[in-house]
Amino acid sequence: MAVVRLLNEDTTLKTHEEIVSGLARHGIDYERWQPAHPVADDAPAEEILQAYSREIDELKIRGGYVTADVIDVNPATPGLDEMLAKFDREHWHDEDEVRFIIAGHGRFHIHSTTGEVLAIEVEAGDLIRVPRGTLHWFDLCGDRRIRAIRLFQDKAGWTPHYTESRIDEGL
Ligand SMILES: [Fe+2]
After folding, report:
1. Which one of 76, 138, 151, 168 counts the least CB within 10 Å of its CB?
2. For the segment 43-71, what is each residue's pLDDT rounded down to a tens digit?
3. Residues 118 and 8: beta-carbon distance below 8 Å
4. Residue 82 Cα to ligand 1 middle (Å)
5. CA of 37 to the centre of ligand 1 (A)
């Protein structure tokens, strides 16, 4: 399950219910998904997408997503630091950022319209949906590994627009 910290209040949301409602206050959707049948986290992408096809299809209808793929990065991925440097500064997209975590970890920071900043550490089984226009940034965790299903309305919309606020520095 995700670990969610409210940085302004220095508190941590602990239960599933607290996380779902605490994130919903800031427009972020959070769910836990179970595969339709057991699937290894290193299975081919097609098997992963098949195991979660019910949830993916439901989400496509709800959010207008047209494609799903599987991204996989680890410490041996060429250009990993350059890739991460695109997303570890505060930015927003014209497109929702939707991720279902298969393996590894990631940390999203959300800069809410309320002024609050949330740190969300996701792990296997977590679905997070960051709506278009939401100020956020992303980094890997200590294992520098993440394998995740991504859903897109239009891949062209998934370009970061940077705010240059520097709020991300030191967080
Ligand atoms: Fe992003």
Report:
1. 76
2. 999 999 999 999 999 999 999 999 999 99
3. no
4. 15
5. 30
